[in-house]
């Protein structure tokens, strides 16, 4: 000290020592084990307990550091996982959207990328499907709507149509309207949409090498029934009929040439023909017919 004669009151001594120890502790950041044991000896603390205390405190410090480190690593891992999740979600959604678009695009038209492009002369028609229309081979190649409109499409698409649209479904059709007559009107469909499921089928070209199925398991039939609907082609000419029992008949070219254009629904038809039973009803090709008592020449 600069002044050795300087005196400190007795009651201040504990505070001086306390502050001095704190100042010394701040300056002396580390103690050796020997120093701690020596200090403990003065306080009458056995060396073994000093050792245990040091080990315990170091263990706690290590655990705390590990916990802090783990917490830091956890935060990093959490952020990484969130990033991965966000990426996966984005990719998943993107993949789903892409898959959905691709699926719908294929449904619209796997052969023609222009299926959705509006074409000149396109007309839109909507209605409920009353029944499937069948070709001579028994394949679904059209739909009869409840408003009498006859939707026509290629028979090689029959499986897609049957999978996507059922009788009773509401549909929206885009296509070319045929000639309207008192017997009906045909629409050559380019797009058919199930308005409930939103599934759309587009006009597709026939796959190369795919042969037209043969008419097999045919039998001879005699018809005596009334006409419920006449079936027409794009020109409005009668090509067949749907009978009251659901049987669909197709007339040979020779028979259609001699059909009376004044025929009405409810006409009585007696005919001979060949045909088959399908999952959607009977289909028969008429060779000779008598309608309302009038025999139609078969051209032979």
Write up what this structure looks like:
The termini are far apart. Helices cover 33% and strands 31% of the residues. 22% of the residues are buried. β11 (281-291) and β12 (294-296) form a beta hairpin. Residues 105-117 have low confidence and may be disordered. It is of the alpha+beta class and 300 residues long. The longest helix has 63 residues, at 47-109. The chain is rod-shaped.
Concise synopsis of the structure shown:
The chain is an alpha+beta fold. About 35% of the residues lie in helices and about 30% in strands.
Give the SSE layout.
Elements: H1 13-27, H2 33-42, H3 47-109, E1 123-134, E2 140-145, E3 149-152, H4 158-164, E4 170-177, E5 185-194, E6 200-202, E7 219-232, E8 238-243, E9 248-251, H5 253-257, E10 268-278, E11 281-291, E12 294-296
Parallel strand pairs: 3-5, 9-11
Antiparallel strand pairs: 1-2, 1-4, 2-3, 4-5, 5-6, 7-8, 7-10, 8-9, 10-11, 11-12
Helix pairs in contact: 2-3
* Uncertain residue ranges: 105-117
Number of helices: 5
Total number of beta strands: 12
- Give the CA-CA distance, first to last residue: 145 Å
**From the alpha-carbon coordinates, what is the Rg to the nearest angstrom?**
46 Å
The class by helix and strand makeup works out as alpha+beta
Descriptive terms for the model:
300 residues; alpha+beta; five-stranded mixed β-barrel; five-stranded mixed beta barrel; rod-shaped
């Amino acid at each position: 000290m600069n002044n050795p004669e300087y005196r400190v009151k007795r009651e201040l001594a504990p505070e001086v020592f306390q502050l001095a120890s704190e100042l010394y502790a701040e300056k002396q950041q580390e103690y050796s084990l020997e120093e701690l044991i020596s200090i403990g000896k003065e306080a009458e603390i056995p060396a073994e307990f000093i050792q245990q205390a040091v080990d315990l405190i170091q263990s706690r410090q290590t655990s705390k550091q590990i916990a802090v480190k783990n917490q830091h690593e956890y935060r990093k891992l959490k952020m990484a996982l969130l990033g991965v999740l966000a990426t996966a979600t984005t990719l998943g959604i993107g993949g789903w959207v892409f898959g959905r678009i691709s699926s719908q695009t294929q449904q619209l038209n796997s052969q023609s990328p222009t299926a959705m492009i509006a074409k000149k002369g396109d007309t839109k028609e909507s209605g409920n499907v009353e029944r499937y229309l069948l070709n001579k081979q028994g394949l679904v190649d059209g739909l009869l709507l409840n408003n009498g409109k006859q939707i026509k499409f290629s028979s090689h698409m029959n499986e897609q149509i049957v999978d996507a649209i059922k009788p009773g479904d509401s549909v929206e059709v885009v296509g070319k309207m045929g000639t309207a007559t008192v017997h009906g009107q045909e629409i050559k469909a380019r797009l058919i949409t199930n308005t409930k499921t939103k599934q759309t089928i587009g006009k597709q070209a026939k796959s190369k090498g795919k042969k037209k199925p043969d008419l097999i398991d045919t039998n001879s039939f005699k018809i005596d029934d009334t006409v419920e609907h006449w079936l027409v082609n794009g020109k409005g000419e009668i090509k067949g009929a749907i009978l009251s029992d659901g049987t669909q008949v197709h007339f040979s070219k020779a028979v259609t040439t001699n059909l009376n254009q004044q025929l009405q629904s409810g006409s009585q038809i007696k005919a001979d023909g060949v045909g088959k039973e399908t999952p959607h009803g009977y289909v028969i090709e008429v060779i000779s017919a008598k309608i309302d008592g009038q025999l139609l020449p078969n051209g032979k």
